[in-house]
Design goal:
By secondary structure, the chain is an alpha/beta fold. Helix content is 25%, strand content 24%. The protein has six helices and eleven strands. Bound molecules: zinc ion.
């Protein structure tokens, strides 16, 4: 374990910061933190711009040693074939932007149809602004992505200790974001677990309503499944979320990602 291997890098977008922390304390697991803010109206957009909208680095994530053993044996990668499939499927997607942000690497979960990803959705009961229907919005967001036909299913479990993915709630972030996702991958770029944190209030104090919670949940689950940001604000995966539903490009990009093996396409 060499701490000198810690390699932070940051990519600042015009309106909001995107931060990824690559930690190689374990040679097998890398964790990535992604966060988004919600553009609910022009006023909040103006405030975010004025505030400069950058995110702080996430603390070094807790790394899970055993997770790498869950990855399947890797078949030899035919990089030419992968690139050909990318080229054929890229039209109408923002896969190119994801590759640019990730140094030409894709990350995704293994096929999880027979063994669904176990998701624990926590409660924010007791936090100001909490609504009992919020967890249902989160579960719906998972189901909406899963229903696209990708080889991933989710099961919602009451026991956090056995979950692959944890969703928890916070009153607000100290930076102008409304949600944050951290996932960990193994050395073959298979995502192995993740944590999503959702806010009940904007950084400035305004409460997030039901549609905003749903939109941010869709965005963060998109990250959890391996998507990254796109500049096109018609998509749910733009850094400052303006829409409330998945776009055709969101759907097409997710579907393409899950036809490709993870890892570098360079
Ligand atoms: Zn994001």
């Amino acid at each position: 374990m060499k701490r000198s291997d810690l390699l932070p890098f940051a990519l600042l977008l015009p309106l909001v910061g995107f931060v990824a922390v690559q930690a190689t304390q374990s040679p097998r697991i890398t964790a990535v933190t992604q966060a988004a803010t919600l553009a609910s109206d022009a006023r909040s957009a103006a405030r975010s711009v004025a505030a400069g909208s950058v995110e702080e680095h996430a603390p070094a994530p807790k790394l899970v040693e055993h997770a790498a053993s869950a990855a399947p044996a890797e078949a030899p990668r035919d990089i030419g074939e992968i690139r050909r499939r990318l080229e054929l499927g890229a039209n109408g997607t923002y896969i190119g932007e994801i590759l640019a942000e990730r140094d030409s690497a894709l990350a995704r979960w293994t096929d999880r149809v027979d063994q669904p990803i176990r998701v624990w959705v926590g409660s924010g009961a007791g936090l100001p602004g909490w609504k009992d229907e919020f967890p249902e919005h989160v579960r719906a967001a998972f189901e909406e992505w899963s229903s696209l036909g990708i080889p991933v299913r989710f099961v919602f479990v009451p026991d956090s200790a056995s979950a692959d993915v944890h969703v928890s709630w916070i009153d607000h972030f100290d930076t102008p974001i409304s949600g944050k996702t951290l996932w960990a991958r193994d050395r073959n770029w298979w995502i192995v677990n993740g944590n999503i944190t959702l806010a009940l209030h904007h950084n400035g104090g305004e409460p997030l309503d039901d549609s905003a919670v749903k939109a941010i949940a869709l965005h963060e689950v998109g990250h959890l499944l391996g998507l990254d940001h796109t500049a096109d604000t018609a998509n749910i995966m733009t850094a400052r979320v303006r829409v409330r539903d998945l776009s055709e490009a969101d759907r097409a990009t997710m579907k393409l990602l899950y036809t490709l093996p993870p890892g570098s396409v360079k």
